[in-house]
């Protein structure tokens, strides 16, 4: 295996940690040197090859795994937090995460597959999913009720990343910027130090996780996650009134105002002109919301909206699991349009239908 390590200078490296069977290819785990030893920003997918790549990468940066002092997690997704338990085991490093994502990790550890599938079934039914999409979930629920979720092994963090505060990293100035949207507790980390190459305008470098990526937009769905079984009635879970797309757009503006000289994202590659990328993403989402508003001149369920939205391929070619994710994205857009007063629920029985408020020509 070839180890892909990039020296970004000034005591910052990135290690490309592969994500098995995923078109994204790899997670860029960043290593930041501090006076108390190196810390990692994210860890990568929990897989033997990924672990090997991470360990080799730490060595290539000139450190031993046992030197690692801490782990900062941008958000709870398995391509970022997957190897955290292994790192802690190997080094004794602490793991820090925003409280909102730590809560997701805790709920996932406590959830059973039965509770999780029930929650998903309720949500998809309310969204108007057809029987052929619901049936496999019912079968799985009937066959495997009570089993624990695979997320059980995700490490419970032992420190909290507090928004706006400098992290306790001797010799470095790294500030936590809360950027909810992709997950409720996503954070970017701003290295408030002169850029070693001083290219472009702006100040410092931003570890942006999945929030700001050079060539792709992160998935924004509802903040639904496995609920404890007794909370699985779909009506009272945390995040039911949340507006993740609204949060994400606010978070984009927050990061744009920081004006970092360079962005070090967790996928793809480092880039400059954060402000330009933020403006492009805001315009993209505004355009998409406008198109959805047009589609809602005819009342539609979230499922019907998802099938009519533009994706990277025709709906008929979207695989089963991606359809569930697509519907969650349609729901996040509906939530935003309702909050903006541009769409509303149509009263009636059955799955909830929405229509545009400005439906007049
Ligand atoms: Zn993610
Ligand atoms: Zn990711």
Automatic annotation (TrEMBL):
Classification via Pfam families: Lactamase_B
Boundaries of every Metallo-beta-lactamase domain copy: 26-267
Q: Could you tell me which SUPFAM superfamilies the record lists for this protein?
A: Metallo-hydrolase/oxidoreductase
SMART domains in the record: Lactamase_B
Q: Where is this region: Disordered?
A: 223-246
Question: Which Gene3D superfamilies does UniProt cross-reference here?
Answer: Ribonuclease Z/Hydroxyacylglutathione hydrolase-like (3.60.15.10), Winged helix-like DNA-binding domain superfamily/Winged helix DNA-binding domain (1.10.10.10)
Q: What is the name of the protein in this document?
A: MBL fold hydrolase
Its source organism is: Streptomyces kronopolitis
